[in-house]
Amino acid sequence: MSKFKKKKDGGIPAVNTAALPDIVFMLLFFFMVATVMRQNTLKIENNLPFADQVEKLDKKDLVMYIYAGKPSENYKQFGNQAKIQLNDNFADVKEIASFIAAERASKREELVPFLTTALKVDKEANMGLIGDIKQELRKVNALKINYTTKKGSVFGRD
Amino acid sequence: MAKRASPEVNAGSMADIAFLLLIFFLVTTTIETDSGINRKLPPMEESEEDVVIKQKNIFTVLLNGKDQLLVEDELMELKDLRLAAKEFLDNGGDGSCTFCKGKKDPASSDNPDKAIISLKNERETTYKTYIAVQNELVAAYNELRDARAQSLYGKSFKEMEDNYKDVNWPGNKEKLKGQIDQIKLDYPQKLSEVQN
């Protein structure tokens, strides 16, 4: 009997996992720092197009976001044409003016001229909708716009 | 009771807690894109006076509903657009532009200051193509400005702009601003969009 017992003792020693929490904490801190909580829940598909001549948007608090794209899977009842989303809801083109006014009112007065409108538009959307948005933005004199894109080549990717 | 070693806290489950938090952040993380092509819309007030621009100074880019590109009345592939735009802008037909390296073709633009790119799209054009065209046109301007900056100041235009934005840059910002403005003046970005 003793023969067998001895063999068992000579097995591989357990791996030391004492450093595991450190590694996990390191990852945790990375994600905590890198995380930006989403401001809006998207109800649309938002696959941004690619471009390589991009400039960075600094001063995130001075950006107004206008989303556009096809309603996503859960909101199919709103049709399959590209729609505008402001804050958390679908919106009509006419509502952009009041949205801009509300955004402006929420900022300090001296910062209002620096506000930029970021258009986050799905790449499959058509230009008619964007033309309408741009026209509406011109009416309320919000002339600084930014077509938000991903960084990458414009060729060859779909 | 004088000195008793305090019992060690069992930290075995710390890893579990950390994992839990890690997974939460992994799931909620969306790396937000915050870069794009900056544009300025034209103001609303209509200036009634008609500006007369010679046809040869306008570079028309037409995008139809099937995402086809018509440049100066000829079909063109997207990949050729950047070069065509550069040739047009850098043409220097009237000889007043001393730094232009173009062909000096009298049938094309007079000088970069007069050259205008006109972009027209239809309602059915997809956004992806529109952005690609915008990107190529901006790239044409940027490449020309880069070349100009290299020959004048020995660094690229992008580098100069980055330096200008960088708070820790040690050089003279006033001078740099002047240099940037000079290049912008040499190759002004005149990109107009036709309303439809």
List the secondary-structure elements of chain A in sequence, H or E. Answer: HHEEEEEHEHEE
Radius of gyration of chain B in whole Å, from Cα? 27 Å
Order of helices and strands of chain B: HEEEEHEHHHE
- Principal-axes geometry of chain A comes out as elongated
- Average per-residue pLDDT of chain A, rounded, comes to 82
Overall shape of chain B: elongated
Characterization of this structure:
The complex is a heterodimer of chains A (158) and B (196). Chain A contains four helices and eight strands; from the N terminus they run H-H-E-E-E-E-E-H-E-H-E-E. With 158 residues, chain A is an alpha/beta fold. Chain A has a domain at 50-151: Nucleotidyltransferase, domain 5 (2-Layer Sandwich), CATH 3.30.420.270. The mean pLDDT of chain A is 82. Chain A is elongated and about 80 Å long. Chain B is elongated, with a radius of gyration of 27 Å. With 196 residues, chain B is of the alpha/beta class. Chain B has five helices and six strands; from the N terminus they run H-E-E-E-E-H-E-H-H-H-E. The mean pLDDT of chain B is 82. The interface between A and B is large, with 56 and 48 residues.
Secondary structure blueprint with pairings:
The complex is a heterodimer of chains A (158) and B (196).
Chain A: H1 2-9, H2 20-34, E1 50-51, E2 55-56, E3 63-69, E4 83-86, E5 89-91, H3 95-105, E6 116-121, H4 127-139, E7 144-148, E8 150-151
Chain B: H1 14-28, E1 35-40, E2 58-63, E3 69-71, E4 74-76, H2 78-89, E5 116-121, H3 127-153, H4 157-165, H5 173-186, E6 191-193
Parallel strand pairs in B: 2-5, 5-6
Antiparallel strand pairs in B: 2-3, 3-4
Helix pairs in contact in B: 2-3, 3-5, 4-5
Task: Briefly say what this structure is.
The complex is a heterodimer of chains A (158) and B (196). Chain A is an alpha/beta fold and 158 residues long.
Main attributes?
heterodimer, A: 158 residues, alpha/beta, five-stranded mixed β-sheet, two-stranded parallel ribbon, 30% helix, B: alpha/beta
